[in-house]
């Protein structure tokens, strides 16, 4: 009875969480994640760049890129979790099952810290993933409508490409571009189409600016709006697929880190072989 009380008193003096080991494992996992993302970007496997403001190319996302995200999460999280388990403080007088739980928790916390740290570095990419999944091309167009570097400018250029034989009219071209950009941006953001009134107006502006006949202007407007809607829809779908693969990779990373931490902790205490025999 005295021994049990003594061991309990000794245990209460030691924290159940070894934060130094968790931080060490988390930093290692985050560094390996960035390293493997950089390598994957060079090899064409990864769509998420580890460098600030590099963003994400959701439209080029592929199955191999998704699998590579899973591999990155598995490898980096396993190593980080193993380090967290191996470097943690040894707990004396603690039941084997409790030690197993604590090792698992240390691996999970190391993964969580690495995820938060990586997300801070990949903030630009994360923002574009969420934005692409929700609005796709329309979000980018909305932030840059009327500016010289908006993604919608390519479609406006197509709409207002003048016939070489036509004379330029006196209408302010900047005002026309800005107005058409707002109309297209609004329709793409709402995942809809131009209203009948707006479409008629756009066709009239295109005809006046380019010198095309009204019928040719109607055809050009229909073709460009279809292209813009297809591009926006593809961007939304690709970004949604990327978000699902990232979710899967995070779940696998959490499991890998937790499992690896139990191995690291078992080797730290010299109980791993006995665990395998009893398992």
Description:
This protein has 279 residues and is mainly alpha-helical. The chain has two domains: 17-133 and 240-278, no CATH class; 137-233, no CATH class. Helix content is 75%, strand content 0%. It contains eleven helices and no strands. It is rod-shaped, with a radius of gyration of 28 Å. The chain starts with a helix and ends with a helix. 37% of the residues are buried.
- β-strand amount: under 5%
Dominant shape: rod-shaped
Major β-sheet profile? none
**Class by SSE composition:** mainly alpha
Q: What would the average pLDDT be, to the nearest integer?
A: 76
**Topology as H/E string?**
HHHHHHHHHHH
Q: Using only CA atoms, what is the Rg?
A: 28 Å
Gap from first CA to last CA? 31 Å
Provide a brief overview of the structure.
This protein has 279 residues and is mainly α.
SSE diagram, text form:
Layout (H helix, E strand, L loop, with lengths): L1 H11 L6 H25 L19 H25 L8 H26 L1 H12 L2 H8 L8 H7 L13 H17 L6 H15 L3 H56 L2 H7 L1
Helix pairs in contact: 2-3, 2-4, 3-4, 3-10, 4-10, 5-10, 6-8, 8-9, 9-10
């Amino acid at each position: 009875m005295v021994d049990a009380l003594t061991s309990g008193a000794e245990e209460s003096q030691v924290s159940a969480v070894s934060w130094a080991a968790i931080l060490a494992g988390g930093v290692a996992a985050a560094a390996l994640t960035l390293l493997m993302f950089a390598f994957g970007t060079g090899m064409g496997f990864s769509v998420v760049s580890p460098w600030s403001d590099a963003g994400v190319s959701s439209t080029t996302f592929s199955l191999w890129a998704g699998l590579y995200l899973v591999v990155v999460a598995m490898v980096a999280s396993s190593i980080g979790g193993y380090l967290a388990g191996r470097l943690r403080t040894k707990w004396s007088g603690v039941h084997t099952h409790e030690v197993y739980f604590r090792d698992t928790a240390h691996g999970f916390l190391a993964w969580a810290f690495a995820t938060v740290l990586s997300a801070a570095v990949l903030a630009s990419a994360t923002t574009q993933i969420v934005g692409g999944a929700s609005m796709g091309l329309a979000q980018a167009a909305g932030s840059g409508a009327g500016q010289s570097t908006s993604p919608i400018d390519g479609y406006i250029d197509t709409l207002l490409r003048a016939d070489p034989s036509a004379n330029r009219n006196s209408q302010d071209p900047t005002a026309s571009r800005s107005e058409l950009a707002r109309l297209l941006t609004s329709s793409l953001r709402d995942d809809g189409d131009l209203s009948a009134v707006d479409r008629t107006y756009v066709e009239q502006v295109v005809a006046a600016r380019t010198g095309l006949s009204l019928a040719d202007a109607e055809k050009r407007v229909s073709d460009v709006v279809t292209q813009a809607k297809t591009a926006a829809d593809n961007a939304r779908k690709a970004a949604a697929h990327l978000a699902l693969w990232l979710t899967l990779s995070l779940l696998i990373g959490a499991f890998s880190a937790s499992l690896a931490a139990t191995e690291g902790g078992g080797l730290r205490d010299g109980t791993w072989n006995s665990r395998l025999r009893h398992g």
